[in-house]
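Lecture notes, continued. The same structure-token format from the folding unit now serves as the input rather than the output. Read the line below as a description of shape only.
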């Protein structure tokens, strides 16, 4: 019975995963999973399947099937009925939500976008310990007593000593008969990584652009956390100046000043130099902007920081240009002219609207670095 329930549960989860995979673009575009995110899982709203059934209509509605009809009469349509404004007594329709772990969600994303597994670069590792109950011991806490093994030991002892009575089979274990589950600690060394998000919060970046960045960051986080067990996330916002903030401030701040992209790159450079030795860490800077920069001189300064500092220390540097009616998009053109489409460590992506989020994620994570 229990085995059958487990099979049904497994089959159900496979159906759910298949449905999410089929509708992944809808979930990514709408961003509805972000609000349902817990610490290690996410609640996924699923469409319910309604079984077709006959429903009885009201009497004397008229129309075809209710007396004489004429050519062109609509089927099943009667006179419109005015509502009475009273509370109903019938059951309403309920939406179904299914909990998936972030690991399962990352697996679905990886399969759908055909993302390669990441080959870690940094040597910094953390110790991950997992305890597995793999053996039997003669000593241990009562909470880990193995009752079946204890019973068998007592039975063997009584049979061997001739005290076992088949007509009155009472088995009383002694202290020496007791058996306990024992565990083995599995210690693994796992690579560490840091994601550094940078975003332009000047006046030209509106709420729609920030929502696109927020959605994309959720899915990038989900994938990278499935590849690294030790991972940190840092947030930098900038207009003409840059500062580090927490996640909530990152997605809600809006300034009205100009834009100096180099201010964010300088802070990112300083952050890496102080906290993340490139030989030890896998480093992922992501910068989102609408492409406006104060001047060509500042763009040249950005390129200088990239070439001398950020690119040599990062696994990849990702720039996502979120299209805005107020942004010129010039910075994307400058990066494209400098590094081209197939640079080893510079990945560029244009995100025109929410429909483009999934393709942008594929751009950023598709190299497996």
């Amino acid at each position: 019975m229990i085995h059958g329930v487990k099979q049904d549960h497994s089959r159900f989860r496979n159906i759910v995963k298949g449905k999410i995979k089929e509708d992944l673009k809808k979930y990514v575009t709408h961003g509805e999973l972000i609000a349902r995110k817990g610490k290690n899982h996410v609640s996924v709203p699923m469409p319910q399947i309604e079984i077709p059934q006959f429903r009885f209509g009201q009497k004397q509605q008229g129309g075809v099937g209710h007396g004489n009809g004429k050519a062109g009469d609509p089927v099943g349509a009667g006179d419109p009925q005015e509502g009475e404004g009273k509370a109903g007594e019938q059951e309403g329709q309920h939406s179904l939500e299914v909990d998936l772990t972030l690991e399962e969600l990352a697996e679905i994303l990886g399969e759908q976008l055909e993302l390669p597994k990441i080959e870690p670069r940094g040597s910094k590792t953390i110790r991950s310990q997992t305890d597995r109950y793999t053996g039997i011991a003669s000593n241990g806490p009562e909470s880990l007593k193995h009752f079946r093994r204890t019973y068998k030991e007592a039975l063997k002892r009584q049979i061997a000593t001739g005290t076992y009575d088949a007509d009155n089979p009472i088995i009383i274990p002694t202290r020496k008969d007791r058996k306990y589950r024992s565990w083995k600690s599995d210690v693994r060394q796992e690579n560490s990584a840091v994601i550094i998000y940078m975003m332009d919060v000047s006046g030209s970046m509106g709420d729609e652009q920030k929502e696109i960045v927020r959605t994309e960051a959720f899915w990038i986080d989900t994938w990278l956390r499935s590849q690294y067990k030790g991972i940190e996330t840092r947030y930098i916002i900038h207009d003409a100046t840059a500062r580090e903030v927490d996640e909530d401030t990152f997605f809600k701040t809006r300034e009205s000043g100009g834009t100096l992209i180099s201010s964010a790159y300088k802070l990112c450079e300083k952050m890496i130099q102080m906290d993340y030795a490139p030989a030890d860490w896998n480093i992922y800077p992501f910068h989102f902007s609408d492409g406006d920069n104060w001047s060509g001189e500042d763009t040249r300064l950005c390129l200088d920081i990239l070439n001398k500092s950020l690119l040599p220390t990062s696994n990849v540097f990702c720039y996502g240009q979120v299209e805005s009616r107020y942004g010129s998009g010039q910075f994307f053109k400058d990066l494209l002219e400098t590094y081209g489409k197939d640079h080893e460590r510079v990945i560029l992506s244009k995100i025109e609207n929410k429909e483009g989020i999934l393709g942008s994620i594929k751009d950023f994570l598709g190299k497996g670095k």
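Point for the exam: The mean pLDDT is 79.
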